[in-house]
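Work package 3, deliverable 3.1, input record:
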Amino acid sequence: MKLDKNTNILIVGLGLLGGSYAMALTKKGYKVSAVTRSRRSIDVALKNSLIREGTNEPDPKLIGKAELVIFALYPHAFVEWIEKNQHLLKSGAVITDVTGVKGTLVKKIQGMLRDDVEFIAAHPMAGREVSGVENSDDSIFEGANYVVTPTEKNTPEAIKVCEDLGRALGFARISRLDPEEHDRIIAFVSQLTHCIAISLMTCNDADHIGTYTGDSFRDLTRIANINEVMWTELFLDNLDALIHQMDLFAAEFGRLRWMLASRDVEGIKDTMRKSTARRIALDQGK
Amino acid sequence: MKLDKNTNILIVGLGLLGGSYAMALTKKGYKVSAVTRSRRSIDVALKNSLIREGTNEPDPKLIGKAELVIFALYPHAFVEWIEKNQHLLKSGAVITDVTGVKGTLVKKIQGMLRDDVEFIAAHPMAGREVSGVENSDDSIFEGANYVVTPTEKNTPEAIKVCEDLGRALGFARISRLDPEEHDRIIAFVSQLTHCIAISLMTCNDADHIGTYTGDSFRDLTRIANINEVMWTELFLDNLDALIHQMDLFAAEFGRLRWMLASRDVEGIKDTMRKSTARRIALDQGK
């Protein structure tokens, strides 16, 4: 299959991300329908013209005509859905997802899926600190990264559909990683980052800090407003890699503390120079 | 003295912050001059109409007529300047500063200062990741916090001048803290935050992370681009309070790691709920 304006696209799970996918695709003239558990979410999506049609039950007709199915569910709900409803999928359909952890999940889904349906996984690195289809916002994809994580089971055609989807959504950079490498990198750039923000927000019970704080504290804790159900699941699905990154960070933080306590001025300055150089390289896309 | 449009304001030190002060005050019609070490900085400030006049030597005439002197120098340079040049200050002048650490410094300056000059300290909680007068930008004060740190040596008149200055600069919230309390809070909301950003940026040598990263990593490391001379000085001037906050954070981060490693789902979710509640309270100004 190819992705074009005639493709029947079905989104399963209309939360913030599913809704934002629907908004971006519908705006560009794609044919988008949705299946989600909540009737209210379908009503909101229809009212805001995010989708053409939708049901709050796994409707065989809607699912059966979809050539591209995008799962915007929590990992375990995705697995359950496939177990229960994969017989409804159209033969030849391509399915993809938005899940933030890949290794175990991709193996599990590809292992259990029918032979005439292909799963190509992707991780859209975009989000907001609010949830729900009513907060859908396709501008979150502007300037953002979209990572496709193919395995040896994937065909070049399905990989292309998935990358075309990323382009249609408006992502700035589309790249490929194998699922395990993806999870190692995500443990560092995303999961560790969230663990740090949570710990910073909860390590001190000081009140009224809003009156005395600068932008830096706000920046470091923006993601401390966190969906505990989703993130607990994502952390535990990638636990070894996350713990490894947490230990690397804790060791480096401990090293800085030691240099400070021993007033090792040159050591502190060296670390700050390294930090500055690496941050500038990040801005330069290196 | 009172702060009004006829007050002769002298800024000592034309870096990013001194230049941004000059820009904000000059735009509002205040009379601003400057003394700084670099002739180039004076030329830039004159060319951009940030100041009326300026010298790169401690000019007795310029200093002698200033009723309000704002020191935008590193802490040790501020102390040295007072030691060397305080005889040039006008009798009755009020002096203030922009230094990020207060306890030791305020005591030191107030202890050594002439009796007919008053030092009232302030901390403008604003900045950018670039330095130099050529990057001056008075918009950094919009929405930002300005903290005045009076001691028992300060008069209500000088405190008012300092608070009026904060208003003239365009700060959103002006508050008072005693210098020691200021330093304890700053150790948490600013210094710890910078230590975390530095350690996150330097704990992993992964390359090309720009291709795979979301906004969260960028947000948490924005301040990892850091002026190592200034911040090393600020950290060491507030070392006990900073180390205490680093230890609180490390303990909380270690607690989260332990909960993850032991798959304590309820403990993790509780911590995330606390984190979310505290972050929402911060946004609500609580």
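The longest helix of chain A spans residues 179-202.
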